[in-house]
Structures are given as C-alpha cells and as structure tokens.
Amino acid sequence: AQEALNPEDEVDEFLSRAIDARSIDQLRKDHVKKFLLTFQTPELEKKYSKKVDERFSSYVACTLLVFCFICCIQLVVFPRSPLMLGLYVCIFVLLAAVLFVCAVHSCGGLFPGALQRLSRTIVRSRARSTAIAVFVVLLLFVAAFANMFSCSRVALRDCAARELNVTPAAVGPCQLRALNYSLGTAGPCHGDGPACHFPE
C-alpha cells in the first residue's frame, strides 16, 4: 500500500502539477495558432507534418464501426427502400476498401509490393491521410442524412384527408385502414418516396 503524503508534500505535488499545466498552456499560446491549431513557425509545422500517425488505420476502423451503428439505427427508424440499401452497401464497400488499403502497410509482406507502397504513401503523408479522413467523414455524413431527403414530407393524415375530402382532424385509424395506408408505403401523396414517421 502506498503511504499517505504529508500536507507539505501534497502541496508541493499540487503546485508542481499546476506549474506544469500553466507551462503547457503558455507553450500552446506562444507556439500554436488559436483556430487552425497549427504551429506558428513553418519549421516546426514541417517537422510535425512529417511525423507518421501509426494509428490512422485504427481511426478508419472506428469510422466503419460508427457507420455500422448508423445503419442499424436508420434501418429501425426509416422505412427500407432500394435507395437506402444501395447507398449503405456502396458506402460500406468504400469504407472497407479504404480501411484495407490503410491497414496493408502494417501487415508485412502478405500483400503485393504496389499495394504496400500505396498504403505507405497514404499513411506517411499528412496531406494524403487528411484527404482520406475528410473523404471518410463525408461518407459518414451522407450515410447519416441521405435517407431523410428520400422520404416524402407529406403528413399521412393530410394525405388521407385530401383523399376522403374531410378535415385532417376527422382522419382516424379506421379511415387509414379503409384507404390501406401505412407508414413506409407510397400512396397518392407519397409518389416521390416512402412516408417516413418523423416525430412531430
């Protein structure tokens, strides 16, 4: 068991931690641009940009995991459509391909030399890895929001009221059943896409 520090040692340790934190903050203020988070001197920025991020393929793997969660949630929330399934399959293939290419450099001699060189040029270049990261984030953005724009925005109750020539307040489950309307189906008002049940 570790011995308890006496009050003087506790104060000294607290002060040394505070001094370290203040010195790191001061170094950040002196050498790093506030909004871009890049070094103010070009020489330091060049040195930093040459540093290889060995965990880049792990980041891409995490984006693939986030994409799988997005797919699961949207398959529960939105009505399934061919556009949704096609979009998710395409994005999954692209993300898996990017992950495969980025992970090849750490697998030794298991893959062809050209593929290993391509993987190394991506991972060891700050500009290329940043471009790949932006591309991957854009794919996640498309996966998260594209389905919302494929849905019809006409309320099911308004659509049924127009068909029955009544007020929307008069439409109930019996009228919808008589018209055979349900969420996710395309009726006369939903020719552009399935009716998505967003909460109001």
From TrEMBL:
User: Would you name any one GO CC term?
Assistant: plasma membrane
InterPro entries on file: Adcy_conserved_dom
Domain called Adenylate cyclase conserved: residue spans: 2-56
The portions of this protein that span the membrane are 56-77, 83-111, 131-149
Q: Name one GO biological process term.
A: adenylate cyclase-activating G protein-coupled receptor signaling pathway
Entry keywords, A to Z: Lyase, Membrane, Nucleotide-binding, Transmembrane, Transmembrane helix
Stretch forming the signal peptide: none
Q: Which GO terms fall under molecular function for this chain's record?
A: adenylate cyclase activity; nucleotide binding
Q: What's the protein called, per UniProt?
A: ADCY6 cyclase
